[in-house]
Amino acid sequence: MSATSEHTKLPAWLIWFNRANLLLATLSGMFLMLVLGLVFVGVFTRYALAMPILGINEVVQLASVGVVMLALPYCTSYEGHVRVDVLDGVIGRWGRFLGDLMSRALSAWVLSVLVQRAWLKMLDAREFGDTTNMLGIPLWPFYAFIAAGMTLCVIVLAVQFLIIAIGKGRP
């Protein structure tokens, strides 16, 4: 079956949602390439040229926020997280069913609280002009990355919860 015919069976909102996840994952990959390049240049200039780049640690730390948070919904939607199924044989089919529902509900709840906190922190950082110490990089966009990544992750978890709950199997 071709990719085109598979997309025609998906609802339009799901196609756009998957595209948003893919876009964020692509941005995450770009941040990762930035981190790799900066670390290489930083190490080279420090040890080969004896000229360290001031503030490179700030940029690497902020780019790392983008790497992790923007890839989170994509990783969640493809179940790329670590999963331990040691007790599956003991708890049986219903235990696993309830465990899958509870893990998604609990994860969505915790991430929802963190989204709210990140959103409020983003508004505060923007209002007060919070910046990094050395380079003066505004912090509010990075709180926005955190809120966006976790918001999409909550939606992914909610969709997975519904798919499991209505008995369509594992998402």
Radius of gyration: 20 Å
Alpha plus pi helix count: 5
Beta content: under 5%
Number of strands: 0
User: H/E element string?
Assistant: HHHHH
**Low-confidence runs:** none
| Backbone shape | elongated
| Arithmetic mean pLDDT | 86
Structural class category:
mainly alpha
Task: Please describe the biggest sheet, giving its number of strands, its sense, and whether it closes into a barrel.
Answer: none
What separation lies between the terminal Cα atoms? 19 Å
- Helix coverage percent: over 70%
Q: Features of this protein?
A:
171 residues; mainly alpha; 77% helix; elongated
Task: Characterise the protein shown here.
By secondary structure, this protein is mainly alpha-helical. The protein has five helices and no strands. The chain has helices at 3-9, 12-47, 56-77, 88-128, 140-165. The longest helix is centred in the middle third of the chain and has 41 residues, at 88-128. The two termini are 19 Å apart. 20% of the residues are buried. The model has no long low-confidence stretch (mean pLDDT 86).
